[in-house]
Specification:
Length: about 1450
């Protein structure tokens, strides 16, 4: 029995059991609490759910559950969502309680219905239950539009008394507003603390960081301002803001505020804040509403809280924090506490920032002192270098002077040795000061570390062994080079060896290099005095010296080991010390392999270098000085302390003739240095000396030198300034320059060379090295000048065409064309007109003038007249040739033939452009855009490829190919006189080309007689040549023409014809596609029209078939009920009912297959027990089974293990019924039919097997096709349309299932199986339908078919009802006013006034407001059901009426 009949039965029972209703009412609303009391007081009869007496059992049970529950719960019932809630839900309602009890959801929660309404509708309409962890809404509670947050769960409440099966929605509500507030505020406070500590570099940074955090929480802090006070709180400065539009910021919060005035005149009450340090609440901001900020929910923020930023330990406030108060929250104690905590976090950040600023100031002061000290060391060291140069140089000269007295040579050695020691100390100080200042720039190169270390260690062998020590050197060859700065490594090794020798008086010194833990490790060990343990942590501190240690000397600066540590760190290495007093010390240096740890810009290729002789010698000479006097000269391997000659004695130098000497200019502000260098160079060079940079420039300008030697540090214009001036002078820019400087180190050398110096020497320098470098640079400069001239000549000689121009290009001196262009053997002033086409002459002249003005290379790509007279392309280049004074005397150039390259470039460019246009045109066609779009793209592309020398147009042929219509191209601008031309031999060229199906070429329309009637058109569009080409499809059909118009007369070239061929081919494809698409569209529309006609025909056919079937069915039912004792009459009545049922099923199948194929069937899904499906299907065919005496066996699952699927039970019964009908039809009388249900994995299966006629192998693949039937025989002419199995298959697929068929052939029966996805058994037992006990009703029957009306009236009478018949609408209205029916069965297709209109009229009759209107019609499409519902009908029955459905409708 249907749910509708259940509902009617429940209504009937409720009408007869008032006592039970009263008890139920008392039970469901009785209980303690205000909500129960309020529910009992509500007049439920005035609500949409009616009085409690009429409530369904489901509503009563759920209402009782809600009212007696301790969790916040809310019940919405019925389509109007009438509310019932409990006491726990009252806080959610706020002031809406108590009027909310019994209110409609929409009325109670109007402000949030647009959010919550759809969420409730979803489960009410059959969707799944919904759960939302956080729903944010604005409610009218404590404040207007109060921000609220809830955790919601909406579940459908089943109710069998309503047609949908769902009576309402149960809402479980948990308010989480305070939790959301707390989480949000804690996150803000946490971020204020975390980011404030991290970003508080300054107080301004701390304020900006705090504002950024507050900006992330606009819900609690819609806007924020931070002001800081100056000392004395006389002024306030705005530091940061959040949530304010920049356009409004200055208006709301000025950047600076004067706090010295009257308190009332100070915005934001900052005067009071600065003095009283109390919190101020501004309930209404004194600003225009349009200038105030807005909340995230677009509400104006009208109030703010102003909080002092003050620390308890500080007498004055730092400033003020101004926070907007959310208009969606109550400013309660918790909300204000949040603001106070936020201001505390800001104060903490400000306090930390101030402390950090103070610390930075202290650190900067210390750093400044340290920098001044380092600069002092650097300056002192620089001042030492120049006198050292003047000491070491003359000492070296005296050492080689044969007249120098031998007895004074020991004192000379003493002076030389101490000068070297002083130089080593100076270098150490300079190195350390550069490292401290961060100015060291190392150069790392791959080095054989073992070989270099062995070489450095060998320099100390003489001194160590001369001191009576054992010296061990064990340097293991490494597997790969190590990237080091060789000069720095030298300092590391020599310092550590010098230290070991100094503090080792006996025993052994060992040097080792090995690989440990995949890193090269260098160790220097000794058996000397050792280092006390307390001193070891400070051994690498600068200026630290360990006192009281026995050694060869107590001299030292205390920076040697500190320097070593810094040099090791520059290599990303590590140095450690291990020492035991009295047993010795080991220094260990560890470096990494590879380059990943080094700056990429400081790496360089491997080179050949040796340790600096002066640097190494200084260390060894100092070590030798520590030996006893007798030990220093005894051992045979001790290093000689004799002075090595630096240059040959001046008197022995071979002087060059004065006229051949190179001229060297020397600039230095130190007179002794000038004299020293002049004496050093006078034998080989002509030397001029000057005392400063300006004098050097004047001397060089006056007479060009071959080389300049300049000191860097000079008064006025320094050496770098001289260098820049030289490089900016065209006449002097190539003069080589050597810079001399006391500034050592890579960074100083890079700076000098980067400015343009050719070489850089550090004082003190080697005299021999200076002379050698001067020689090399002078020779190199001469070679460079000569090679440059040769190089330019070589380039000129290797050109395709070579030419020479005079200085101003007015005359071409010669040109060798090399079979490319004509030669010019004599000077010519008309070269421009002879070789350059007119269109390029101006551009070439501009390029020439630019080259002359700037004396730079001429380079230009231009057109040129070739040797054969044709026009080609050339790339011309020319360079200026200058004399010794830098004046351009002529130009040498070349011209390369670019003609073929330009042709290829043009072809590639045209092809690329054409392919792009073709792609766009085809894409437009694929997108079904108008044909003109694609053809416009092609015509514009074609015109573009002609480079503006021609225009194009396209004409399309009409359907009859009688005329051409312009659709794209040139004619779209101007006259439309020739929009259409005829296709014939006498037409204009494009009409003629379409007629003749070949190109029509008119070189000159002025001379073509055929054009005499069309010359006006040619003159209007300014063209002389017209070339028309037909556009022909592959099928040979001319669909249009493509025409090219040229302003100049002429024939089309190969490129023009290729372009036309491309266009016509592409256009033919596009036009053909469009025409095919139009034909398909017409065909589709025709199919749609035919389909609509078929649907209309089927609907009308069903109506016309059902109308006569209705009285037949009624008559059959009457006969079966009235004739009880006559077997023949009973058989006849059964036969009528069977045949009527068969006809009805055929009509339904016919309509179903139509609706299914169009996707218009909607399944009513629900859990379905397959046993029930089988039972109902068997009931459908039971009469035929008896008639043919078949044996039916049924095997289904038991009640304990039922099989459930998700589906539409009516459609599944239809599927099984169709299969059973086929089995009965195609099985001989007395046959066997077996039906079963069983599980199969995750699916459930319904099977039907018979031993009937079977299915042939040929028919098997088509058994589910439409209108397919097996071959009929005379004894099996059972009728049928051949659509039943097709309907079954489609319905099964709509249930996501499969249908299978097996048969061993004709005569062997067939087996069908329906396989559907299985679901778990639903909770609750199904209620069996019951049609018994329906009370008598007054029923008005209205139908213009008298047989149908009378037979239905008779049947109603037999069923115990009181019928009244009317055969028209007006008669029905008249009878209804006196008969007062309870139910009206109305035909829809009534003449005059149809059933829809009649229903409206009946509803208007007094005393008939509650009449039940039932549509009885032959129309059964879904849209028919929808229309009857909209017209006010309560139910829709399709003729012939199912009598059980009729009973339920009357119940």
């Amino acid at each position: 029995m249907s749910t509708t009949q259940d509902r009617r039965e429940a209504e009937r029972q409720s009408a007869h059991e008032p006592e039970a209703d009263t008890e139920a009412e008392i039970r469901c609303l009785t209980g303690p609490g205000e909500a129960c009391e309020l529910a009992r007081a509500v007049d439920w009869a005035s609500t949409a759910i009616g009085p409690v007496a009429g409530w369904s059992q489901s509503l009563r049970s759920t209402a009782s559950l809600v009212l007696h529950n301790h969790s916040p719960m809310l019940l919405w019932w019925g389509p109007q969502f009438v509310q019932i809630y409990n006491d726990a839900y009252r806080p959610v309602l706020g002031e809406k309680h108590p009027r909310a009890m019994g209110q409609r959801f929409r009325d109670c929660w109007s402000e949030v219905f647009h959010i919550l309404g759809p969420m409730a509708e979803r489960p009410f309409r059959g969707g799944p239950a919904s759960v939302s962890d956080d729903v944010a809404v604005l409610l009218e509670r404590k404040v207007p539009r109060e921000e609220s947050h809830f955790r919601l769960a909406y579940s459908p409440v089943p109710d069998d008394t309503v047609e949908s099966g769902i009576g309402g929605v149960l809402a479980t509500v948990t308010e989480i507003t305070e939790q959301i507030y707390a989480d949000r505020q804690l996150r803000t406070l946490r971020d204020l603390g975390a980011r404030g500590s991290a970003d508080a570099q300054t107080v301004d940074h701390a304020c900006i960081s705090a504002a950024a955090v507050l900006k992330d929480n606009p819900w609690d802090v819609p806007f924020a301002l931070i002001y800081l006070f100056d000392d004395g709180a006389a002024h306030a400065r705005r530091i940061a803001s959040a949530g304010l539009d920049p356009a409004l910021l200055e208006r709301l919060a000025p950047a600076t505020l004067d706090l010295a005035g009257a308190p009332a005149e100070t915005p934001w009450r900052l005067h009071d804040i600065a003095r009283a340090r109390r919190i101020e609440f501004m309930a209404e901001l004194p600003h225009a509403p349009e200038s105030l900020p807005r909340s995230p929910w677009d509400e104006t923020v009208r109030s703010a809280l102003v909080l002092p930023l003050a620390s308890p330990e500080q007498p004055d406030a730092y400033g003020a924090l101004i926070c907007g108060v959310s208009p969606h929250r109550v400013l309660d104690a918790g909300y204000q506490a949040f603001f106070e905590l936020a201001s505390s976090q800001v104060v903490t950040s400000l306090r930390d920032a101030r402390a950090l600023e103070a610390e930075h100031r202290r650190a900067e002061a210390l750093a400044e002192i340290d920098r001044a000290k380092t600069a002092f060391f650097s300056n002192v060291s620089h001042e030492f270098r120049t006198p050292l140069t003047l000491m070491l140089g003359p000492v070296a000269e005296l050492a080689v002077d044969p007249e120098f007295p031998p007895h004074a040579r020991a004192k000379l050695n003493l002076a030389h040795r101490n000068a070297l020691r002083l130089l080593r100390l100076v270098n150490t100080l300079l190195d350390f000061s550069r490292i401290e200042a961060g100015r060291v720039q190392a150069s790392y190169e791959p080095t054989d570390l073992a070989a270099l270390t062995r070489e450095l260690a060998s320099m100390f062998r003489s001194a160590i062994e001369g001191g009576g020590l054992t010296y061990e050197v064990d340097c293991e060859t490494l597997r790969e080079p190590v990237y080091i700065d060789r000069e720095m490594w030298e300092r590391i090794v020599l310092n550590l060896l010098s230290n070991a020798f100094k503090y080792t008086l006996q025993g052994t010194i060992a040097v080792r290099l090995s690989v440990q833990d995949a890193r090269p490790v260098f160790e220097v060990s000794d058996t000397g005095a050792g280092i006390p343990e307390v001193e070891q942590p400070r051994i690498f501190h600068r200026f630290h010296r360990v006192e009281g240690i026995a050694g060869r000397s107590q001299e030292g600066t205390g920076i040697g080991l500190a320097l070593v540590q810094e040099l090791v760190r520059l290599h990303a290495g590590e140095i450690t010390v291990r020492s035991q007093p009295g047993h010795g010390t080991t220094f260990r240096v560890s470096l990494p392999f590879g380059t990943a740890h080094l700056p990429a810009d400081r790496l360089k290729a491997p080179g050949h270098a040796t340790p600096a002789a002066i640097g190494a010698e200084a260390f060894v000479q100092e070590a030798m000085r520590w030996l006893p006097d007798d030990a220093g000269s005894q051992p045979p391997q001790v290093l000689s302390t004799e002075i090595v000659p630096d240059v040959p004695p001046v008197g022995l130098s071979i002087a060059a003739p004065v006229s051949l000497r190179p001229r060297v200019l020397v600039a230095d502000d130190n007179a002794d240095m000038r004299a020293y260098i002049r004496n050093l160079l006078a034998a080989k060079f002509e030397v001029e000396i000057v005392g400063d940079g300006r004098a050097a420039l004047e001397a060089a300008t006056r007479e060009r030198p071959d080389l300049i030697v300049s000191d860097i540090m000079m008064p006025g214009l320094d050496g770098l300034g001289v260098l820049r001036a030289l490089r900016g002078d065209k006449r002097l820019r190539d003069v080589p320059v050597i810079l001399l400087s006391a500034r050592a180190g890579e960074e100083a050398r890079v700076e000098g060379l980067g400015t343009g110096a050719d070489d850089y020497l550090v004082k003190p320098f080697s005299a021999r090295e200076l002379v050698s470098r001067i020689d090399a640079l002078i020779e190199l400069t001469a070679l460079r000048r000569k090679s440059g001239e040769r190089f330019r000549a070589l380039i000129g000689a290797s050109s395709d065409a070579v030419y020479s121009m005079n200085a101003d290009w007015t005359e071409m001196r010669f040109l060798q064309g090399r079979n490319f262009i004509a030669d010019t053997n004599d000077a010519s002033s008309s070269w421009l007109e002879r070789y350059i086409p007119e269109e390029d002459r101006a551009r070439v002249s501009d390029y020439v003038q630019h080259a002359i003005d700037h004396q730079t290379r001429f380079e230009c790509e231009h057109r040129i007249r070739r040797l054969d007279g044709s026009q080609g392309w050339a790339m011309s280049r020319a360079i200026p040739v200058k004399d010794e004074h830098g004046t351009v005397v002529e130009w040498f150039g070349m011209a390369v033939d670019m003609t073929e390259r330009k042709r290829i470039e043009t072809v590639l460019r045209d092809n690329t452009a054409w392919l792009a246009a073709l792609k766009d045109a085809f894409q437009a066609a694929v997108n079904n855009e108008p044909l003109t779009v694609s053809l416009d793209i092609l015509t514009h592309a074609a015109a573009g490829q002609m480079q503006g020398q021609a225009r194009c147009a396209f004409h399309i042929a009409d359907a009859k190919q009688a005329g051409l219509r312009h659709v794209a191209g040139m004619l779209e601008h101007g006259t439309h006189a020739l929009e259409t031309v005829p296709i014939d031999a006498g037409s204009v060229d494009w009409g003629r080309a379409a007629c003749m199906r070949q190109a029509v070429i008119t070189p000159d329309v002025n001379t073509e007689p055929r054009w005499k009637d069309w010359l006006w058109l040619a003159r209007q569009y300014d063209y002389r040549a017209c070339w028309s080409f037909p556009v022909e499809t592959v099928a040979g059909k001319v669909v249009g023409t493509f025409t090219i118009f040229r302003a100049q007369p002429g024939q089309p070239g190969a490129r023009d014809r290729e372009l036309a061929m491309r266009f016509t081919q592409a256009a033919a494809i596009i036009v053909s596609r469009q025409q095919e698409a139009e034909e398909r569209a017409h065909g589709v529309e025709a199919l749609r029209h035919a389909d609509r006609q078929k649907d209309e025909f089927l609907a009308m056919l069903a109506h016309e078939l059902r109308n006569p079937l209705a009285p037949i069915a009624n008559a059959g039912e009457l006969l079966s009920r009235m004739v009880t004792g006559h077997d023949g009459a009973k058989a006849a009545a059964d036969m009528i009912k069977r045949q009527t049922t068969q006809l009805t099923r055929l009509v339904d199948d016919l309509l179903d297959i139509s609706r299914i194929t169009q996707g218009r069937i909607t399944l009513q899904h629900g859990p379905v027990d397959l046993a029930g499906v089988v039972t109902q299907a068997i009931e459908m065919v039971e009469p035929k089974l008896r008639e043919k005496r078949h044996t039916l066996t049924v095997e289904t699952t038991t009640r304990d293990t039922p099989l459930f699927v998700e589906g539409d039970i009516a459609r599944l019964v239809q599927c099984v019924g169709n299969l059973l009908t086929n089995a009965v039809k195609y099985t001989d009388p007395g046959g066997a039919i077996h039906v079963w249900t069983r599980p199969r994995g995750t699916h459930a299966v319904i099977g039907i097997a018979d031993n009937g006629s079977g299915i042939s192998a040929e028919l098997m693949p088509h058994v589910f096709d439409l209108f397919v039937q097996s071959n009929r025989t005379l004894d099996r002419a059972q009728g049928g349309l051949g659509i039943g199995l097709a309907v079954v298959k489609r319905l099964v697929h709509m249930h996501h299932g499969e249908i299978l068929v097996r048969s061993d052939g004709v005569g062997h029966g067939a087996t069908f199986e329906i396989e559907l996805p299985r679901i778990a058994m639903p909770a609750g037992a199904p209620i069996e339908p019951d049609t018994a006990g329906i009370r008598s009703r007054r029923v008005l029957v209205v139908d213009d078919n008298r047989d149908a009306a009378d037979s239905l009236s008779m049947l109603l009478g037999v069923l115990g009802h009181t019928p009244e018949v009317a055969y028209g609408a007006l008669e029905a209205i008249e009878r209804a006013q006196t008969f007062l029916p309870e139910v009206a069965l109305l035909d829809i297709g009534l003449p005059g006034m149809n059933g829809y209109e009649l229903a409206g009229k009946l509803r208007e009759i007094p005393h008939l407001e509650g009449v039940r209107l039932v549509a009885v019609t032959g129309y059964g499409q879904p849209e028919d059901y929808q229309r009857t519902r909209e017209a006010g009908f309560d139910e829709h029955l399709v003729k012939p009426i199912d009598h059980d459905a009729l009973q339920r409708s009357l119940g």
